[in-house]
Amino acid sequence: MSDFDVQKKQIVDTAQALVRKGYLMATGGNISLRIPNRNAFAITPSNYDYFKMTPDDVCILDFEMKKTEGHLKPSVESAMHGAIYQARPDVNAIVHTHQAYVSALTLIKMPIPALFDEQARFLGRSVDIIPYAPSGTGMLKNTVAKHVKNHNNAFMMQNHGALVFGHDMERAVHNVEILEKCALAYLLAICSEKKISKIPLAIREIAFAKLRGDQKKIEQGERVTSGE
Ligand SMILES: [Zn+2]
């Protein structure tokens, strides 16, 4: 038994749901949840089959990367997750995947501009490319920590995959799905070689202002609903 059984179970359930939906493959990717008021987070173990994973396999780390619970090695990207929680007080759940269409865009280094209303409302003004750094390095952690300060909730890591945030796990999973839909639509549009239309700038800014409004409430400890 652990004080964090609820968070650990939510991580395992989410990971398995994301494998079933095709966003996580093999042992790739990692998922974490902030532990409220503890300067700590729960994260998936490194290189471990999601369908063998049980809540006991999930690690608890503090922001100094000290493991306080878990018998397995934590994800190699743990320091990146810790840096994001410290840089973004509005973020309580992080999902990193190697989902296919986002991965394709990371190879051609094409950021996704504001194409759809719900994209701007939940993912932010654009989905930017975070420049390449090798997995599990301090260089990647530092590069990511710098980029996430623009308050967007989805990023593409060059030659790697997707990085998606939510104020809770449900929102983070919805954002993973919105991102993949945007990536696929954008790739198909690019392939047409026609001019790609974006949503009007004013609409993008209104949608982003709503997202920032939610984030500020969460930073102040208020609850927000995932709707609209
Ligand atoms: Zn990865």
Describe this protein with a few key phrases.
228 residues, eight-stranded mixed β-sheet
Can you describe what's shown?
The chain is of the alpha+beta class. The termini are far apart. 39% of the residues are buried. It is globular and about 55 Å long. Strand 7 and strand 8 form a beta hairpin. The protein has helices spanning 5-20, 78-87, 100-108, 117-122, 138-147, 169-192, 201-219, and strands at 30-35, 40-43, 59-62, 67-69, 93-97, 128-130, 154-157, 161-166. The chain contains seven helices and eight strands, in the order αββββαβααβαββαα. Helices cover 41% and strands 15% of the residues. The chain has an eight-stranded mixed beta sheet with strand order 4-3-2-1-5-8-7-6, sandwiched between helices. The structure holds zinc ion. Zinc ion binds next to loops. Residues 28-29, 96, 98, 135, 160-161 line the site of zinc ion.
